Amino acid sequence: MRILLLTQLFQPEPNQLKGLDFARELERRGHEVEVLTGFPNYPKGRIYPGYRQKFLFKEFLSGISVIRVPVYPSHNRSGFARALCYLSFAVTSVFPGLFGIRRPDVVHVYQGPATLALPAMFLRLVLGVPYVLDIQDLWPDSVGSSGMMKAGWLMAILRAWSRLTYSLARRILVLSPGYKAALAGRGVEAQKVDIVYNWSDESPIAEPCGLERIRTRVRRDGFFNVVYAGNVGPVQALGSVIEAAEILERKGAKIRFVFVGDGADLDNLKNRARTLALTNIDFIPRQPRDLARGYIRVADAVLVHLKDDDLGRLGIPQKTQAYMAAGRPIIMAVRGDAAELVRKADAGFLCEPEDPVSIASAVERLSSLPEEERERYGRNGRDFYYENLSFRAGVERTLAAYRESVR
Question: What domain count does the chain have?
């Protein structure tokens, strides 16, 4: 098959799950892959050094043909600026973008806003090319949850647009059973929706010797060290974890929390920890991929937390798979499908999101277990990941959706 991967973000931008490695694996399996994307500017909203925006730019990354079109670069919290960023790519990926590609057999629309489907819809309506819609966020729900947009006529337009993208898609990929149920509630036929769990980076850590330096940075003798690695924003609602840390410190528990990452709420969390005079919290800036995985590897336990709302119950934060693949016991402070994965795998403890007492209790109970028992939870998670959530399993399910879409 000739596959067009349509994505607003792509390497060298970080954290692209279905990015270059995914495209290379498809080509390894005998398919032709082309990528249509924007000029790299995430996460800071500035075009990367070595790139200059042009009308149309083609390059090859590890043998993969990548077509880049101009975008309005912005990734701050301004709803208007973010909307311009999304809309600019929707427009330029149709023209000039579609004039620079080879005609595909199928289009894979991956990650990002509902507007991303526009060029795929154009190909579908004009040339009859089917598209597979890969839903990583439910729109407009995710916009409302992040605080970028209030309920109103714009949300109504986005909701109607999203329904149109669903109806024209030949197949739809979702990352959890909850997303599939949510789409069914919006009138999407269940038989066109496939659950493809997100996978984690499975490559060996490039510098295992660096783990000792990370271990020194994270671990404190005699303390049980809990690591949170990832985005620090309103959707993660990590203020409750700060409150849980306060409860544990006041009790004299030898437990500390290490936050690795950045985001819109980072300064608020730092200020709150400073106000409470907490000594059991450490903040580490966003790390390159290999180093971030190292911080997870050396943790005694790892934490997942999301805002307690309907959207949080439907999805599975991608760090869940990363934590499982690393073989670390998990404190899961998310309801719904993510909690069900941890329960099914017997990979850690569940607690209530945005409930400092529940979070503190779960961490304290896990820390009180013998090390051998904690490691058993980690092994359970790793075994479950490789049997059910791995890169291999995800690629095979995605290819099955492609084959169904071109029948």
Answer: 2
